[in-house]
């Protein structure tokens, strides 16, 4: 049983390729309020070898004891091995760590970033909270602050292995990949900050 979070084309291709050789079950979190997990479930259901179930985000911890592997997509892989991924990914990775379930991240080398996450919120963007708490709930909206982030920062301690076109890598090895892909990452970082 594999669990994945939200919509990721890389993860979908990875799982569909695996389904060509074997049959397995995939649990997809819905990723409210965007419900991108439903799109992922539709894409995976195209394979006759994948049985897909969509669960609400709140059920992740309860179902994790039955999961054999967590496969996640990401928006970016930071220099320290941390992730910038769809909101809800940190919760999934933390539940997997608690249940000693392996977390695999599928990301192409083009998603490797030479930046370090000194401030977790720096790489995040917030969207309108209307999907969580509609504005028509006037009395309630005036009494609460609702924050609706697009992404989560997932620390490298919650990731077991990265898989890309070059193979599998531990989070602690990413600095080496950055040197191979970008040269001296320190010089690159200074150039980025200077512009």
Shape: globular
What kind of assembly state do the chains in view correspond to? single chain
Backbone structural class: alpha/beta
Distance between the termini: 46 Å
| Mean pLDDT metric | 85
Spans of 5+ residues with little confidence (pLDDT < 50)? 190-195
DSSP strand content:
15-25%
Radius of gyration: 18 Å
Number of helical regions = 7
Helix amount, in percent?
25-40%
SS elements, strand count: 10
Q: What is the chain-wise order of helices and strands?
A: EHEHEHEEEHEHEEEHH
The major beta sheet can be summarized as:
7 strands, mixed
Q: Order of strands in the sheet with the most strands?
A: 3-2-1-4-7-9-10
Describe this protein's structure.
The chain has 195 residues and is α/β, with parallel strands linked by helices. The chain has seven helices and ten strands. The protein has a seven-stranded mixed sheet, sandwiched between helices. It has a three-stranded antiparallel sheet with strand order 5-6-8, with helices on one face. The radius of gyration is 18 Å and the shape is globular. The model is unreliable at 190-195 (pLDDT under 50).
Keywords:
195 residues; globular; seven-stranded mixed beta sheet; three-stranded antiparallel beta sheet; single chain; alpha/beta; 10 strands; disordered C terminus
Q: What is the structure about, briefly put?
A:
By secondary structure, the chain is of the alpha/beta class. The chain is 29% helix and 22% strand.
Which SSEs are present, and which pair or pack?
Blueprint: E1 2-5, H1 9-19, E2 24-29, H2 36-44, E3 50-55, H3 60-63, E4 69-72, E5 76-77, E6 83-86, H4 89-98, E7 102-106, H5 138-141, E8 151-154, E9 161-164, E10 167-169, H6 174-182, H7 185-194
Parallel strand pairs: 1-2, 1-4, 2-3, 4-7, 7-9
Antiparallel strand pairs: 5-6, 6-8, 9-10
């Amino acid at each position: 049983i594999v669990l994945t979070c939200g919509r990721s084309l890389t993860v979908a291709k990875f799982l569909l390729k695996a389904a060509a050789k074997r049959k397995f079950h995939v649990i997809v979190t819905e990723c409210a309020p965007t419900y991108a997990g439903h799109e992922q479930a539709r894409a995976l259901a195209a394979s006759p070898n994948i049985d897909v179930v969509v669960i609400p985000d709140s059920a992740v911890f309860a179902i994790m004891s039955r999961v054999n592997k967590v496969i996640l997509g990401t928006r970016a892989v930071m220099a320290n091995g941390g992730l910038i991924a769809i909101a809800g990914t940190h919760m999934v990775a933390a539940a997997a760590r608690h249940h000693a379930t392996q977390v695999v991240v599928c990301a192409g080398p083009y998603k490797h970033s030479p930046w370090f996450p000194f401030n977790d919120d720096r790489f995040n963007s917030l969207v309108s909270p209307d999907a969580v708490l509609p504005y028509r709930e006037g009395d309630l909206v005036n009494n609460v602050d609702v924050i609706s982030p697009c992404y989560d920062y997932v620390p490298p301690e919650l990731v077991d292995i990265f898989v890309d076109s070059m193979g599998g890598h531990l989070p602690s090895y990413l600095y080496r990949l950055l040197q191979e892909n970008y040269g001296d990452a320190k010089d690159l970082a200074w150039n980025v900050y200077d512009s």
